[in-house]
Amino acid sequence: MSADTLAIYPGSFDPLTNGHVDIIERGARLFDRIVVAILLNVEKAPLFTVAERVEIAREVFADNPKVEVDTFDGLLVEYARRKHAGVIVRGLRAISDFEYEMQMALMNRHLNPNVETVFMMPAEPYTYVSSRLVKEVAALGGSVTNLVPRLVEERLREKKHGRQTLRA
Ligand SMILES: Nc1ncnc2c1ncn2[C@@H]1O[C@H](COP(=O)(O)OP(=O)(O)OP(=O)(O)O)[C@@H](O)[C@H]1O
Ligand SMILES: [Mg+2]
């Protein structure tokens, strides 16, 4: 028997959307364990702090023992090596994701041939969901129900309320 297959699902998750949740659940069915790996210090001005994003992901997957939440910095393949992970999971929404994702996957293979990148497609309703769009819609008062977990919807509302109070 081969050892357990650990998969890493890297991203900024600012915030976690139902598209991410869909991919994580698929990964958890396919692999023995999946680590949601939140990248530190990518965006200059994220809406949610890393600590908030970790807390959200842990809460959303509290009942799934196959899902772990962690943070990482630096080269993804080095992080994968440290974790003894054999797989990197990425989601593909549309052709527009493809070129960048392919470049990244091939570069990562060049850097570490022992890690395989696996792409997964989300359920159709999530093919147009991105964290950036969710933030924009929420900031403008639009509904993001069914596009993000309920907890994220609440947190987005709190952020918006906090900002309005600050401005008042
Ligand atoms: N709705 C979705 N369906 C499938 N995969 C997704 C979806 N949203 C993001 N992903 C994938 O999840 C991984 C992490 O993405 P990331 O954290 O950048 O999310 P994002 O929604 O693209 O955020 P942003 O809008 O800030 O770029 C990437 O592989 C990305 O393609
Ligand atoms: Mg993105």
Walk me through the structure.
- Strand 1 (6-11), helix 1 (18-30) and strand 2 (33-39) form a beta-alpha-beta unit.
- The protein has helices at residues 18-30, 50-60, 76-83, 95-111, 131-139, 150-167, and strands at residues 6-11, 33-39, 67-72, 87-91, 116-120.
- The mean pLDDT is 94.
- The protein has six helices and five strands.
- By secondary structure, it is an alpha/beta fold.
- The radius of gyration is 16 Å and the shape is globular.
- It binds adenosine-5'-triphosphate and magnesium ion.
- The site of adenosine-5'-triphosphate has 18 residues, from helix 1, strand 4 and helix 5.
The ordered string of helix (H) and strand (E) elements is: EHEHEHEHEHH
Shape: globular
Average pLDDT works out at 94
Gap between N and C termini: 63 Å
List ligands, each type once: adenosine-5'-triphosphate, magnesium ion
Fill in the keyword field for this structure:
5-stranded parallel beta sheet; 5 strands; binds magnesium ion; 17% strand; 168 residues; alpha/beta; binds adenosine-5'-triphosphate; 45% helix
Record the SSE blueprint.
Elements: E1 6-11, H1 18-30, E2 33-39, H2 50-60, E3 67-72, H3 76-83, E4 87-91, H4 95-111, E5 116-120, H5 131-139, H6 150-167
Parallel strand pairs: 1-2, 1-4, 2-3, 4-5
Adenosine-5'-triphosphate binds next to helix 1, strand 4 and helix 5.
